[in-house]
């Protein structure tokens, strides 16, 4: 004796948010039923486990049928198969594209390839996120990446329009796409303390300031690649460390400005040349794709770690970077003001964001 | 050439990829009507082709216009091999043939393929130019309107109700043995779909012709069914009620007519000419019946049917009804006798039409199918139905009734055996809609007699009762006799006074039978049927009593036949009719009183039953005013005799005389536990779990006692198939079947928990035995939310007070609600209802002629006072026609909100409901009937998610196609929607499955009442039961 077939179809598609989340999280039907029973829905509605199982199966089926539509969210609005109120549609899309920070942290900056996908079971074990859910999140990244990769115009806007995502989520996806495209290294041990939101913030800075789209909206180019011309120009900044006079002059300007304003003045003064060399070298090397990948690790090794060992607070760092940036403009022989501003603006905000434990 | 059909193919979207190499499609479209085909150009390499074709014009007879669907086939062009079909769209152009329906079909329609399901959409434009045809002998019936709705459609007025129309067409089934054959399945199933479209068209045209012959212009309650007889062919048959309808032109004018507002209003609307319909009767009791067996061509057994109402000695008017009534009755009778079958498929009637209800009549017969030799002469099938209808007619007569209302027909087929069933409610109708000329005054006179109880009064002679029953004086008017229990197949009349709320009551039964062939099999089945019916009936009766109710509406008994078993499912909505006596309890009597433990057991059970009854009364708010007992009729028999009646039915007709004598006392509804069966029965009785808090359910259109519906509606279909083990006993089977239904209901409640408080309306169960050891149950229903605050108030009103409805002769149709506040509750009631009245400056209380009203009710009140000491005084609540203009109540603002939230979607929202109305909205136009038939098949069942995945997708697709076609007609809802066929077959070993679904309904345009507000001031169908109930809906 068994139920051979059991379906429920509403004219307006009925979807339970809680079950949807369980489905997204990769629970099997039976596990989902257990979770629901523990959640107390049975007592609430005088239902039995049987009823719960039937309902869960039914919902899972509905979600599976919807899934292919969710891959192209724009289709959800003008498909005829399911009558879903717009607010529900938005909920479905938003939750489907939502991801776990701990998961994204594992794949951020990796190539969204089959190889990476194969390693997802390790990621799943490491993060405790079910493999099914990992796959969905990974596929979402890949899908978004593929669609916007070839599109012109602002990245965030493209993502928002094609995937009907709310603004914050679209920004996060922009960061993921940007990282994947430039293959930034984020997995090194020294970078482990950084959260996804730290990186997303930095990505936003880079997208807004260092890509082609950042300078000229009219440019028929993409937001996903760094501005090659700019990277080329960055090499000119090397003069700040190669020219001995300039370096000394810069140091004295900064030190004058800083004197008396901080407790760690001596450390700053002692370390000035070291830090400045670090930052300018990062700039000069960015023209090489390989060094772009190491951008964050370089920031940490060449700047953040030395500062931290000198026990600088983030207020100190802020102070230091502000004067460091501004003083360069006063140098007589330094001509690359625009590039310097464009470079240091991003570096400063990235470092400040990354300067925590 | 009286018609020109024009079609234009605009564009396609979401097409499937047909060319794997390019991931694109080179699509073009073939447009076919009759034998003419046009093609569009190929639109290369696109999944969203823009054809923008010219207008394809077909010049055709209007006969063809009615019969044929427009066939649109989307294909993928292939230079080297045959073009691949992507899918098809069938467009029924019937709605365009009627001037009052749709004028154009335009929109995105799903492209459907029997194997792949929906594959993208196509945008088309279809128009028809009709030329006048004056040929008297024409074969077409263009312009006759069809409605699935079983009441007078809401923007029409009935001028005449002509009566019963029926027709059937037969053909060979191009594909019935789908699973074992080697073939291209798509081709044959497509042929099948096309054939059925054609046959329905033809059937509709023929019915239309009959309607024109009768002088009508519309068919209401149109019910079309398919009999898939397998080898012997395919029968498409339809019945309906021919009417002459008149469109109500403007809103303000229409508003005076009750039938065009939602029923919550109707209910409050006093029937303008509420006739008091006298007498009515029906029930259960005896297993009476006429058995006859005729052998025509082939084998047939006419099953001894159980006549729920029993058999009468011919109809004669109640003596106390007076000469006037007799005269009236005669008049109608003569009008009806001219008809071959005085049957009506309506379940809701225009005010003043239904006078008396006599009880349920039903007839069944078992036939052996043989091949239909000549499709053009379907005489055999016609003759079969004729027999059944004659039987029904004679049953009605024996109940003293001249008409049958709420009539329907159905079949159940298993291999070569076919059970034909027909059932309805014997009734006496007013001549008002059956003769020309205006309504005469007698009716007005009668109306004064009994507003809400008239239809319950017995129609037959009390001295010559056709079957055992106790009669009492009507508890409403105290002037006419009423039976103790009333069973009907119709909806609860809107004017009926009901105490408390109603609920769904189901009797479920399984009976095993031996496998057999041919006549032996047919004989075995026909021998089992009466037992089945009797037991279903007993179950219904017990469950009704258990809920403390005394009447059933919308009774539908379905008997399904399989190779090794018979299934019976009876569903109805139980209510407590104020006019009928309060039902007695259930008393259990043991067989061996000497045994002490046994006694103990019995008394335990008795206690359980009593507790349940008390609980139920509370749950359904059944607190009728107590009235002096006045049992009329025969003396109380000794219990022994009474119980005999219930256990001895099987001893057949010999007992009849004895049964006739046994007029039981109403309190003594005795169940004797003389065998295990009875114990089972009682257990079954108590295992029905109550509906969870916040839920109500019924299988009728409306739920008495709830009116403040919100706009939240959710139609759904649920299907379950259960596999049984071999070798089960009857009891085992019963339990399984009963649990199956109960669990299904529980699942529904759980699914819909977010809509609480809500009521599942029009719960329509269909059972089938798709193959040995499988039981299939399909349910279609709609969940309606309502406002809780008012319900409570309502409940109090109906529970603790007695609503009395009355009408003044005043044109404005003022209504008063006399509330007798019981002392115990007076503190909690007052606020809302009464203050509401006060807040309307226009309330016409001062001008109310209270005295005449009071006169009418005074005797009543006297009685009430006598019984209920707590009743203090009556407060009169009046509402005037201006109430509508009052500020928006809560419910309405909610409906506005939800409206808005939907509007953002790019796909038009189409509501679907099995009801004939949409709460809180007014239907302003009927666009035509939707009658669609689809077949879906798969040979990759596992890949599509197994049987559940397959069927889930298919049902969703059917919904989508119905919505798309309605939207293309310009509509925003389907009312009276039903899934009439859902035949599912599987062969898991071959990874195959197939399903046929037939759905129908009426496409309509509705507007929210809140939106109408400004354009018309509707005379308020004054609220009697709730203060602002109607518009919240």
UniProtKB/TrEMBL annotation, chain A:
Coiled coil regions, renumbered to chain: none
- GO MF assignments: fibroblast growth factor binding
The record, for InterPro entries, names: FIBP
Any Pfam family: FIBP
GO cellular component annotations of the record: nucleus
The processes (GO biological process) annotated in the record are:
platelet aggregation
Name of the protein: Acidic fibroblast growth factor intracellular-binding protein B-like
Organism listed in the record: Carassius auratus
Mind giving the lineage of the organism this protein is from?
A: Eukaryota, Metazoa, Chordata, Craniata, Vertebrata
Name of the encoding gene: LOC113057935
From TrEMBL, chain B:
Q: Where is the C2 domain?
A: 1-109
Q: Which InterPro entries match?
A: C2_C2CD5 (IPR037785), C2_dom (IPR000008), C2_domain_sf (IPR035892), C2CD5 (IPR038983), C2CD5_C (IPR057815), C2CD5_YbjQ-like_dom (IPR056430), C2CD5_YbjQ-rel_dom (IPR056431)
| Entry-linked Pfam families | C2, YbjQ_2, YbjQ_3, YbjQ_4
Give the UniProt record's GO annotations in the biological process aspect.
insulin receptor signaling pathway; intracellular protein transmembrane transport; positive regulation of D-glucose transmembrane transport; positive regulation of protein targeting to membrane; positive regulation of vesicle fusion; protein localization to plasma membrane
SMART domains listed in its UniProt record: C2 (SM00239)
> From the Swiss-Prot or TrEMBL record, what is one GO molecular function term?
calcium-dependent phospholipid binding
Keyword Protein transport included in the entry's annotation: yes
Q: What is this protein called?
A: C2 domain-containing protein 5
Give the species: Carassius auratus (Goldfish)
């Amino acid at each position: 004796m068994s139920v051979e077939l059991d379906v429920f179809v509403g004219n307006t598609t009925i979807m339970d948010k809680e079950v949807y989340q369980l489905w997204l999280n990769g629970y099997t039907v039976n596990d989902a039923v257990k979770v629901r029973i523990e959640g107390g829905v049975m007592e609430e509605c005088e239902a039995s486990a049987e009823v719960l199982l039937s309902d869960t199966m039914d919902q899972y089926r509905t979600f599976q049928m919807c899934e292919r539509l969710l891959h192209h969210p724009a289709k959800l609005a003008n498909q005829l198969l399911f009558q879903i109120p717009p607010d529900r549609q938005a909920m479905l899309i938003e939750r489907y594209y939502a991801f776990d920070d701990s998961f994204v942290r594992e794949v951020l900056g990796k190539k969204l390839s089959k190889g990476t996908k194969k390693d997802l079971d390790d990621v799943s074990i490491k993060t405790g996120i079910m493999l099914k859910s990992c796959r969905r999140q990974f596929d979402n990244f890949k899908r978004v990446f593929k669609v916007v990769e070839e599109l012109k115009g602002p990245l965030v806007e493209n993502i928002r329009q094609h995937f009907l995502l709310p603004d914050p989520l679209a920004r996060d996806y922009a960061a993921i796409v940007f990282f994947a495209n430039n293959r930034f290294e984020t997995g090194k041990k020294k970078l482990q303390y950084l959260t996804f939101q730290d990186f997303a913030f930095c990505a936003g800075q880079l997208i807004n300031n260092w890509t082609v789209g950042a300078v000229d909206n009219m440019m028929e180019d993409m937001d996903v690649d760094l501005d090659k011309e700019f990277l080329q120009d960055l090499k000119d900044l090397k003069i700040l460390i190669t020219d001995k006079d300039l370096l000394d002059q810069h140091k004295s300007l900064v030190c004058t400005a800083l004197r008396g304003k901080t407790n760690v003045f001596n450390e700053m003064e002692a370390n000035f040349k070291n830090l400045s060399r670090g930052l300018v070298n990062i700039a000069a090397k960015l023209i090489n794709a390989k060094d772009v990948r190491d951008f964050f690790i370089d920031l940490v090794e060449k700047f953040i770690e030395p500062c931290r060992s000198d026990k600088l607070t983030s207020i100190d760092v802020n102070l230091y970077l502000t004067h460091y940036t501004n003083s360069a403009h006063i140098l007589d022989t330094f001509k690359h003001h625009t590039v310097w501003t464009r470079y240091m603006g991003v570096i400063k905000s990235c470092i400040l964001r990354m300067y925590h434990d | 050439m009286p018609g020109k059909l024009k079609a234009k193919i605009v564009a396609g979207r979401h097409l499937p990829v047909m060319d794997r190499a390019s991931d694109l499609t080179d699509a073009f479209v073939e447009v076919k009507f009759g034998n003419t085909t046009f093609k569009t150009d190929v639109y290369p390499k696109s999944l969203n082709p823009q054809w923008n074709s010219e207008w394809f014009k077909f010049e055709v007879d209007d006969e063809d216009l009615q019969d044929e669907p427009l066939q649109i086939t989307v294909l993928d062009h292939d230079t080297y091999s045959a073009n691949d079909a992507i899918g098809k769209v069938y467009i029924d152009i019937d709605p365009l043939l009627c001037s009052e329906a749709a004028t154009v079909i335009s929109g995105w329609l799903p492209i459907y393929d029997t194997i792949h399901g929906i594959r993208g959409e196509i945008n088309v434009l279809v128009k028809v130019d009709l030329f006048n045809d004056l040929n008297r002998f024409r074969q077409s019936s263009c312009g006759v309107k069809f409605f699935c709705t079983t009441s007078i459609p809401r923007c029409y007025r009935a001028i005449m109700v002509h009566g019963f129309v029926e027709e059937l067409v037969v053909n060979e089934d191009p594909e019935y043995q789908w699973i074992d054959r080697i073939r291209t399945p798509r081709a044959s199933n497509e042929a099948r779909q096309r054939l059925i479209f054609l046959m329905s068209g033809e059937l509709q045209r023929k019915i239309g012709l009959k309607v024109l012959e009768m002088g009508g212009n519309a068919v209401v309650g149109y019910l079309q069914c398919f009999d898939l007889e397998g080898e012997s062919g395919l029968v498409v048959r339809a019945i309906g009620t021919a009417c002459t309808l008149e469109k109500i032109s403007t809103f303000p004018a229409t508003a005076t007519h009750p039938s065009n507002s939602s029923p919550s209003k109707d209910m409050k609307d006093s029937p303008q000419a509420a006739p008091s319909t006298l007498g009515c009767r029906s029930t259960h009791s005896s297993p009476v019946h006429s058995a006859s067996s005729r052998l025509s061509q082939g084998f047939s057994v006419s099953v001894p049917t159980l006549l729920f109402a029993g058999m009468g000695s011919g109809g004669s008017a109640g003596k106390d009804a007076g000469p006037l009534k007799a005269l009236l009755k005669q008049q109608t009778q003569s009008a009806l006798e001219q008809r071959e079958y005085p049957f009506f498929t309506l379940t809701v009637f225009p005010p003043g039409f239904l006078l008396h209800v006599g009880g349920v009549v039903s007839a069944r017969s078992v036939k052996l199918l043989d091949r239909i030799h000549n499709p053009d002469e379907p005489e055999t099938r016609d003759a079969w139905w004729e027999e059944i209808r004659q039987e029904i007619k004679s049953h009605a007569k024996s109940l003293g009734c001249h008409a049958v209302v709420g009539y329907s027909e159905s079949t159940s087929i298993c291999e070569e055996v076919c059970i034909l069933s027909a059932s309805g409610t014997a009734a006496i109708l007013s001549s008002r809609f059956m003769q020309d000329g205006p309504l005469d005054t007698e009716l007005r006179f009668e109306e004064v007699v009994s507003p809400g109880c008239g239809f319950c009064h017995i129609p037959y002679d009390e001295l010559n009762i056709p079957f055992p029953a106790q009669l009492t004086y009507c508890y409403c008017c105290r002037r006419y006799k009423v039976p103790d229990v009333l069973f009907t197949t119709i909806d609860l009349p809107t004017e009926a006074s009901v105490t408390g709320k109603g609920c769904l009551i189901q009797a479920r039964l399984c009976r095993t039978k031996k496998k057999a062939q041919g006549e032996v099999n047919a004989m075995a089945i026909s021998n089992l049927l009466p037992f089945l019916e009797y037991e279903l009936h007993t179950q219904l009766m017990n469950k009704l009593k258990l809920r403390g109710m005394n009447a059933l509406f919308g009774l539908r008994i379905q008997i399904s036949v399989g190779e090794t078993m018979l299934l019976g499912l009876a569903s109805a909505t139980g209510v407590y009719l104020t006019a009928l006596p309060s039902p007695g309890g259930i008393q259990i009597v043991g067989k061996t009183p000497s045994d002490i433990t046994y006694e103990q057991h019995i008394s335990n059970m008795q206690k359980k039953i009593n507790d349940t009854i008390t609980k139920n009364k509370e749950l359904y708010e059944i607190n009728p005013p107590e009235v002096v007992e006045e049992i009329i009729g025969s003396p109380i028999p000794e219990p022994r005799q009474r119980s005999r009646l219930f256990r001895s039915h099987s001893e057949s007709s010999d007992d009849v005389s004895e049964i006739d004598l046994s007029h039981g006392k109403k309190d003594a509804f005795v169940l004797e536990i003389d065998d295990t069966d009875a114990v089972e029965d009682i257990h079954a009785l108590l295992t029905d779990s109550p509906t969870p808090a916040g839920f109500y359910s019924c299988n009728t259109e409306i739920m008495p006692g709830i009116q403040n519906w919100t706009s939240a509606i959710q139609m759904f279909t649920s299907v379950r198939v259960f596999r049984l083990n071999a070798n089960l006993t009857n009891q085992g089977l019963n339990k399984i079947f009963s649990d199956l239904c109960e669990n299904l209901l529980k699942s529904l409640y759980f699914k819909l928990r977010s809509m609480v408080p809500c009521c599942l309306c029009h719960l329509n169960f269909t059972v089938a035995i798709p193959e040995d050891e499988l039981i299939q149950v399909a349910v279609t229903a709609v969940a309606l939310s309502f406002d809780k605050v008012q319900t409570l108030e309502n409940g109090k009103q109906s529970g603790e007070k007695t609503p009395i409805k009355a009408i003044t002769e005043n044109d404005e149709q003022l209504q008063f609600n006399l509330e007798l506040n019981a002392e115990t509750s007076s503190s909690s009631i007052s606020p809302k209802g009464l203050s509401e009245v006060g807040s309307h400056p226009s309330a016409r209380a001062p001008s109310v002629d209270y005295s005449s009203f009071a006169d009418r009710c005074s005797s009543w009140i006297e009685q009430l006072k006598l019984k209920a000491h707590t009743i203090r005084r009556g407060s009169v609540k009046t509402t005037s026609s201006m109430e509508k203009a009052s500020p928006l109540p809560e419910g309405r603002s909610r409906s506005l909100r939800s409206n808005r939230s939907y509007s953002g979607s790019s796909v038009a929202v189409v509501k679907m409901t099995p009801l004939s109305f949409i709460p809180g909205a007014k239907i302003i136009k009927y666009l035509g009937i939707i009658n669609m038939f689809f077949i879906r098949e798969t040979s990759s069942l596992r890949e599509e998610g197994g049987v559940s995945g397959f069927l889930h997708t298919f049902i969703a697709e059917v919904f989508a196609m119905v919505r798309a076609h309605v939207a293309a007609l310009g509509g925003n809802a389907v009312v009276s929607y039903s899934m009439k066929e859902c035949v599912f077959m599987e062969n898991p070993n071959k990874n195959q499955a197939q399903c046929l679904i037939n759905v129908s309904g009426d496409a309509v345009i509705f507007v929210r009442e809140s939106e109408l507000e400004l354009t018309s001031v509707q005379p308020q169908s004054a609220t009697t039961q709730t203060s602002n109930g109607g518009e919240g809906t």
